[in-house]
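Section 5: illustrative case.
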């Protein structure tokens, strides 16, 4: 008997469920209120529909008239044949993903009573060229117009109290935040001084953007803010910015240089990943964390200065930076992440300070050109695989004076074929004396004695590249490594 009752109850529930929806003229409707006689469009059931579609204001079912007040979630999802749609002015809500993937949609008119545009409502509508937001709209969900690759501008009614349009860019008045720059936007953009935040995904995939001027009012560059802006060649980050978010400049391949101001404390994960045009980066002394993959695959990067404020170098932070020739890790660093300098094939020298307590797996693997590893830790820490075969065979591991026997007992250091001691405690790394002039190194600075001020000095790295040319008796700013100091026909080899 109980079984029959259960079956009857399930049947009644199912019947009521189907009774809450009905179909008419290619659309399925969901009854929202029987008392108010309101419905929402829940699905376009004509999958292969082509061209223009007009959503009715009213619809009849079982001799009852209903008013259409919403377009429900995924109602027209992936209807790529749809080219234009007319939404009646009775509609107040356009649901999440309502028109997502309608790649053929070229025009849409949002009526003046709509208050909410849901998340991803028009995402992937690659045929849209412009959108007008009426004054009634108070909520626009995340990703509402993402992947609209032809969208050139977003217009917002002047009397809208929540949103505004700045040169075709969507802006939140209450948050003082850039929300979305249309992907089809081209050329140069100047952000006004009222903006304090460049929001997450704000300039996402704006491939035609060539330069952007960020005002000094901005404090935060959000996650994915300039993601894949491959045409961006220059960006000026003001000294007001404290945070560069995750993926902020991901794959901005046109960037050749970037100046990070001293106000920035955090460089997020993947922040400059695959910025292959970058040749140099100056990281200010305010930064304490370099995120995972922050500069990974920046193959054009030839020099980077890591300041003494940095505590953590994240996983893969500089992996695949094949142009790097030397790197000096400051004495503030305690953690070097997994694969941090993995596959830096041009790296010839690296200096590891005594402050380091953790070095992640494969941190320096496939750095095939390594010639010198300066390890200043008094007590060697046991690690997994850090170096490749070439480095173990051919590089010289320089350890603190009197500590060689300890290093020869601990992995991975004992795997080096060449281990030499160096007196790091004195602050003097190397000195070359000659009747003509003397060259000394103290605390990272090269000092030259016995020459006149006007005498030209050249410094070359081990590959023969000229890294300094000028006058003077002191030279600073070079990374640790082996150098040749030349004056006229006389050269001196020093270790910095």
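Designed sequence:
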């Amino acid at each position: 008997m109980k079984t029959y009752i259960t079956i009857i109850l399930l049947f009644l529930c199912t019947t009521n469920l189907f009774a809450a929806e009905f179909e008419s003229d290619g659309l399925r409707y969901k009854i929202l209120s029987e008392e108010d006689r309101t419905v929402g469009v829940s699905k376009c059931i004509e999958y292969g529909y082509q061209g223009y579609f007009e959503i009715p204001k009213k619809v009849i079912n079982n001799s009852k008239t209903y008013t259409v007040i919403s377009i429900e979630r995924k109602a027209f999802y992936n209807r790529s044949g749809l080219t234009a749609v007319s939404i009646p002015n009775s509609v107040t809500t356009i649901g999440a993903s309502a028109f997502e993937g309608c790649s053929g949609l070229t025009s849409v008119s949002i009526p003046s009573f709509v208050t909410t545009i849901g998340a991803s409502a028009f995402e992937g509508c690659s045929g849209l060229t412009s959108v007008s937001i009426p004054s009634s709209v108070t909520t626009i969900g995340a990703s509402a117009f993402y992947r609209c690759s032809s969208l050139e501008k977003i217009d917002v009614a002047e009397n809208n109290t929540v949103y505004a349009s700045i040169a075709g860019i969507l802006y939140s008045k209450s948050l003082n935040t850039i929300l979305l720059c249309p992907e089809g936007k081209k050329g140069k953009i100047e952000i006004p001084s009222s903006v304090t935040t460049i929001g997450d995904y704000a300039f996402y995939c704006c491939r035609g953007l060539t330069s952007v001027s960020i005002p000094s009012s901005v404090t935060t560059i959000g996650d994915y803010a300039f993601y894949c802006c491959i045409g961006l060649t220059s960006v000026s980050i003001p000294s007001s910015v404290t945070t560069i978010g995750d993926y902020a400049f991901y794959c901005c391949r046109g960037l050749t240089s970037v100046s990070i101001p001293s106000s920035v404390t955090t460089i997020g994960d993947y922040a400059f990943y695959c910025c292959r045009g970058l040749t140099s980066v100056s990281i200010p002394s305010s930064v304490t964390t370099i995120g995972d993959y922050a500069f990974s695959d920046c193959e054009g990067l030839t020099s980077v200065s890591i300041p003494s404020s940095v505590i953590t170098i994240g996983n893969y932070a500089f992996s695949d930076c094949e142009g790097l020739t030397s790197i000096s890790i400051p004495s503030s660093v305690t953690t070097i992440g997994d694969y941090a300098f993995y596959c830096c094939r041009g790296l010839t020298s690296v200096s590891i300070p005594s402050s380091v307590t953790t070095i992640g797996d494969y941190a320096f693997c496939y750095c095939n050109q390594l010639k010198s590893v300066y390890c200043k830790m008094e007590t060697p820490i046991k690690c997994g695989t850090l170096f490749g075969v070439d480095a173990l065979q051919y590089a010289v591991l320089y350890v603190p004076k009197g500590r060689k026997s300890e290093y020869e007992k601990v992995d991975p250091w004992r795997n080096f074929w060449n281990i030499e001691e160096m007196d790091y405690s004195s602050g003097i790394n190397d000195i070359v004396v000659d009747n003509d002039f003397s060259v000394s190194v103290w605390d990272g600075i090269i000092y030259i004695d016995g020459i006149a001020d006007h005498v030209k000095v050249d410094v070359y790295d081990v590959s023969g590249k000229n890294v300094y040319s000028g006058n003077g008796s002191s030279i600073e700013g070079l990374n640790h490594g082996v150098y040749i100091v030349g004056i006229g026909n006389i050269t001196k080899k020093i270790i910095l």
